[in-house]
Amino acid sequence: MRNSRLSKSLLGITLSASLLLSANLVLSPQAVHAASVTTATATSTALKANSILATGKQYMGVRYQFGAPKGSTRSFDCSSFTQYVYGKSGVNLPRSSQAQSHVGTYVPRNQLQPGDLVFFYSPIHHVGIYMGNGKILHTYGSPGVTISDLNSNWWSSHYSTARRVL
């Protein structure tokens, strides 16, 4: 009986080792490495987007001023706001919303992710940061830095394009 149990254990270990070696032949080290690099990049991008959004939210209510000076946190216009909060996370953006609309890569509206820049009007003269769940963080007029619903009639009808810069 003892011999039988030992034989079964050895058989189980041998089968497990065979399956493991077979899996290693099927899943090459390059495929495993590529998958882990992709996952790490996605995680890094999500962390950076969260950092940008957290930085931007710290300025909720800061007044809007057209042509606000670069680097000022006493007032923002839409593009100085995006330039400032992205800059805090090491992402350099040009000063104007029109120029910002040419950096990064185009993103279809149905594929927006937190941290994407969203642009409004034609020609473009407003920019905000997509937060997820149809919300944007941006600044304009009397509310100053605020959160708006991208899917509301007004913002939705003035939506122009989006760019991914992360």
UniProtKB/TrEMBL annotation:
Say which domain of life the source belongs to: Bacteria
* Signal peptide positions on this chain: 1-34
Single biological process term from Gene Ontology: proteolysis
Keyword Flavoprotein carried by entry: no
Name of the molecule in the record = Hydrolase
Asked whether the keyword Protease is assigned, the reply is yes
| InterPro entries per the UniProt record, alphabetical | NLP_P60_dom, Papain-like_cys_pep_sf, Peptidase_C40
